[in-house]
Structures are given as structure tokens and as C-alpha cells.
Amino acid sequence: MNEMEIVADRGAWRAGFEERVLAGYRAAGCSEPLARALLERAAKGIDDWTVATDGTEWTAVGVTQENGAAVGRIHDLTAPQGRAWAERWCAGQGAQRVEVRLTGGAGAFADYPVRGQNRMRAAAERPELPPGLTVRRLTEEEYPGWYAGEEAAYIADIVRAGALTPEQAKEKSDHDFALHLPQGYLTPGHAFYAMEADGQVIGTGWVNHGFLPGVTFGFSLEVYEEHRGKGYGRAAMAVGEWATRRGGDEVMMFNVFGGNEVAMGLYDSTGFAVLDEFRFMEL
Description:
Layout: E1 5-6, H1 11-27, H2 32-42, E2 50-53, E3 58-66, E4 69-77, H3 82-92, E5 97-102, E6 114-122, E7 134-137, H4 143-161, H5 166-180, E8 190-197, E9 200-212, E10 215-223, H6 232-246, E11 251-257, H7 261-269, E12 273-282
Parallel strand pairs: 4-5, 10-11
Antiparallel strand pairs: 1-2, 2-3, 3-4, 5-12, 6-11, 6-12, 7-8, 8-9, 9-10
Helix pairs in contact: 1-2, 4-5
């Protein structure tokens, strides 16, 4: 078995890496413009990655700072012994945990806990809202209360996924909301909805049209706890598809955190396939 050695000339690796990423997204049903947009996101910071080879196969790694902690990332892995080498390399750089983005299954990382998934599906061409459910725009007066609830739920989701402490999760939440909603309720491309049934607001939705080519991203499709178990979860997904087409997009995408098995089961049953899966391991 050959030892892994860090290489300076990464041209041969990079061409293969980009084609592997594109092939994974194409296999998941992405259009070519969407696959290439996702590749651009997956390759962010690529010039700073460290690449090693055993002579025939590859491993690419990096370390970033997240909420004051060093986080190792395995960006590419084709070498059989590459995982152990990557974990040692990340630990040697001071990383407290290592994360990996996967397409097409867990593979060599089945023992890494799931931190989150990106899921997607083409929206129905003429989605219809379920009988008895109406949707309206959230008002600007309702926005502050909605925001407080969304922030609390987001922090709880991050902590449940197991990767961050409550304090780190709050810091990440502050950063993410400021990034995605710099103008709050008036942020261009973002729409907020209230779902009503029997004269009551039973949940809310937050979507971003044009998030990627042809894609509406569902940041939140939330059914209030007291209204769960009544079939509104599937209704909320239909609202997401309705909003996707209303915004001029064809594909709906969203993220689910690890540990939320109920939501994952719902998404499996409604045909939202896993596009990317993010897993992690404490070092």
C-alpha cells in the first residue's frame, strides 16, 4: 500500500474532481446550469485545499474557522486509505472535528453522524393547494414575531444535529439570518407566507426565489406544533411547490438538519431526494 503524499501540481486531480462532482449532481437530476452552480459552491476555496495522492488515487482536505473553532473538511476522497490520512492531517492542523459533503450515499463515511441534508425535487407544473388550506403573504407587522420564532427553531435544530453548542448555534444563527435577510422583510427575492385552515394560522413559509438557476430555496416551511399530526406537513410541501412555481422557478430545494427523523421520513415519502449530505466526526 502506497503512502499518501501531498502534491504541489494539482491539475490532474482538479479536472477529475470537478467531473466527479458534476456527475453526482447530474445523476441527482440537476440541469446543467444548476449542476455547474452547485459545483461552484462545492469548490469554494479550492485554491487553499491540500491535495495528496498515493500515486493513483486522491484525497483533498482543508481547515476553516467556524464559530471560533478549527473545522477540518474532507473535500474529495478516492484513495482507500485516504480517510485515515485526512483525519490525521486535520487533527494535526488543530481541527476539533472533521466534516464531509457527500452525494450518492454515505460510502466510507457511514459511521459519521448526519449533520444535514440538502433535498430537492422538481415542483409540479400546476401545484394545487390542499382543500381547506389557504395561503397569504405574511404582513410586515407579523414579521418580528415570526422572526423570533424562526431564530429559536433554527438554533434548536443546529444543537439537535450535534455539531455545535447552544452558544455556537446562536452565533451561527445571527450570522446566517444577517447574510440571507440583510433587509429583513423587504429583502429582494424573499417571500414570507402564512398558511391558514379553519380560520387559524397553522404554519408559515419562507422561500428565496432564484436562489440558484431555476431553484427556489425553502428556508422554512413550518407547521406549528399544536397543528402537527393532521396532515399539514404534506400540505406545507405542496405550498412550497406552489410558491416555487409562483416565483418562476422549476425546482424546490431545502435543508434538513440531522436528527430530525420525522421530517426526513416526510421528505422521503413526498419524493424529495437527497442532493447533498453533510456528515461530521469529532476528533
